[in-house]
């Protein structure tokens, strides 16, 4: 496995930071990256910021994508409609927003 920022390969036993999106990156690469950006260099996952106004706008913009599914069970049955929520949440999912340090293991020694 290689670092998405510097392209160096991880060595067995190297310490890496694991982002909330589970991407592993070396601390000497990810710290400067996150000082100027709030996205993962691998998957572009957007990290939360300390800008409360931006986070509120981002949350509100996300609400416009929530959908309500309408199911018509029986046309002959009073044309009653049953509205059900499709499972999209109003609030952002409860992800662990911190970074965790992990040790790179040899794939042969796992499991």
Automatic annotation (TrEMBL):
Residues 3-44 form the RING-type domain. InterPro entries: E3_ubiquitin-ligase_domain, Znf_RING, Znf_RING/FYVE/PHD. It comes from the Eukaryota. GO terms for biological process: ubiquitin-dependent protein catabolic process. Residues 93-105 have a biased composition (Basic and acidic residues). Keywords: Metal-binding, Zinc, Zinc-finger. It holds the Pfam family zf-RING_2. GO terms for molecular function: ubiquitin protein ligase activity; zinc ion binding. The keyword Zinc applies. Residues 85-111 are annotated as: Disordered. PANTHER family: E3 UBIQUITIN-PROTEIN LIGASE PRAJA-2, RING FINGER AND PROTEASE ASSOCIATED DOMAIN-CONTAINING. This is E3 ubiquitin-protein ligase RING1-like. The lineage of its organism: Eukaryota, Viridiplantae, Streptophyta, Embryophyta, Tracheophyta.
């Amino acid at each position: 496995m290689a670092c998405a920022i510097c392209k160096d390969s991880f060595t067995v036993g190297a310490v890496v930071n694991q982002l909330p999106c589970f991407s592993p990156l070396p601390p000497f690469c990810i710290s400067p990256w996150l000082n100027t950006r709030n996205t993962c260099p691998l998957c572009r996952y957007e990290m939360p910021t300390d800008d409360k106004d931006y986070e509120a706008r981002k949350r509100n913009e996300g609400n416009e994508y929530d959908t309500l599914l309408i199911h018509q069970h029986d046309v002959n049955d009073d044309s009653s409609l049953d509205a059900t929520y499709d499972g999209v949440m109003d609030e952002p999912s409860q992800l662990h927003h911190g970074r965790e340090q992990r040790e790179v293991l040899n794939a042969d020694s796992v499991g």
